[in-house]
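@channel sequence for tomorrow's demo:
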Amino acid sequence: MSDIDAMNVGPRWYVAHTYSGYESKVKANLEKIVENRTTKSSMGFGAQIKSNTEKDIGTILRDLEPHDLMKFGLIPELIGRLPALVSLDSLDREALIRILKEPKNALVKQYEKLFDMDGVKLTFDDAALERVADIALERQTGARGLRGVMEDAMTDIMFAIPSDDNIQSVRITKDVIDKKGKPEITLKPQKTA
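structure tokens (generated this afternoon):
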């Protein structure tokens, strides 16, 4: 019998899905299935009253087991091929802001580098980045939607910068993101002859 290299066994399959549009139906059905399995109900004077608090889909899926998926309607042949069930939490505002600023190739760093190539210092107000995250949350696009929000706000100024050698710095405010104002531009000091 030969040993099998676990790191080289061929393709690994991942099944993932976001329930856009169907979230309420999926959430309600899975919540009932998981709740029926995990909660103990009782009757009478000493019974504990269950509260109908709204739960996030990620919280519900944390307690999900393969048997729950069968009750939900997936066939056992498919469930058997899913050795691990993992739930991911939804991204919140703080996580989206961190995604904008912290990774090595973060959007803020990319724009700063682009402006730096033209000799312009670019800065973003914290309120502007918070607004970018809020718009992505409103659109329910998550981290992938951040680029679209940023491009929408930055396109005009990106085309104006290369044609004007007098610009020293640009500051992006919340009003720029909301399209209610213009970026704050600082010009280079005039050279006297």
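heads up for whoever presents: The chain has a mean pLDDT of 82.
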